[in-house]
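Continuing the batch. This is chain 6 of the set; chains 1 through 5 are on the previous pages. Same settings as before, nothing changed between runs. Recording input and output for traceability.
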Amino acid sequence: MGEWQRCSPCQRTLCSAVDDADSEHVFHAVNSPPPSVPELSDLFDFDCNLTHADLASDVDTLMRAAAAVGVTQMLVPGATLQESTEAIELCRQHPTTLFPTAGVHPYNAHATPFDAELEQLRSMAALDEVRAVGECGLDYSPGFPPPPGQKAWFAIQLDLACALRKPLFLHERLAHADFMALIHECKRKHDGYFPPAVVHCFTGNEAELQEYLRHDFYIGVTGFVCKKDRGAELREIVRHVPLDKLVIETDAPYMGFPKCRQAETSNRKKQSPNVPSALPLVVHAIAQAVGRSPVEIAHATTANARRFLRI
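Output for chain 6:
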C-alpha cells in the first residue's frame, strides 16, 4: 500500500480528493479570494509533511508560496525512523522556519520494535532540535497493522516522551478507548506525570474532545473544517475547543479540499496533493465557525504552537 494510505481513514474518508458533488458544496469560506498577507502575516502550520514524496522535491517553492500568504513556520513530523531522519536534516537547513519531530506513525507500527530501532528513535528524540515525540498513536482503520504492534510502539513512545520531558504529537483514529488506556497506564508508571500533548488532525466526536481537554491536550484542526457537508460536525465541535488549546495544520500533502491550492499560480484547481499555502483558508473557516476574526485565530494558534514546541 502506498503512502497515501498511511493516514486512513483520512485517506479514504477525509483527506482523499473529494468527488465533484462535494466540490460543489464546499464551505463558502474557501470560495473567497486568497487571504491577504497584511491580514494574516504570522501563521504556524502545525503539521506539514515536507518529507513526503509528493512534496520533498519542491520544498523551496512550497515554502515561498506559503510565506507569500503569511505562513512563516511549520512543524515537520516524522512517521518512520527514516522520515524522522529526513525531517531533522531538512529542518537543519531552515532552523528558524521548520521544526522536526521524531516518531513512528501507527501505519508503520507493524511489529514489536527491535532494540536497534528503539535506540535510533531515542537518539533522535533526545536531540535539542527535535521538538516532540511522534507522530505516534493508534489507528484501527482498515489496512493498518494489527493492534498489538501499534500498542507496543505507542507505549514505548509515550514512555520515551515522559523520560525526555518532551511533548507528544499524537494520532488517533477509531481507537479512542485503547488510546486513552495506554495514556492512563503511562501516567501511572510515571507517578502522574505526562508531557504536553496534541491530538493532531482531530476528527472525533464531542465526548472524545472533552476527554482530551480534561487531560489538557491541544487539538489540531485541518482543512477538513472547510468542507460544507462532511466538515459540518467538525465546525460545530471546534466551537468547544478553548482558543488557547487550538492549533491549525494543513497535514499536507494529505487532507486536501476544494480550492486548497488557490494561492498557487498554477494547478489552482487541484485538491491533491494539499499544500501549506492552504493554511489561511483553514484559519478563515475556523474563524467563521467560532465567530471570531481570522486575525484573532491566527495570533492565538501561532502563540499556542510556539508555546507547545518551546520556540
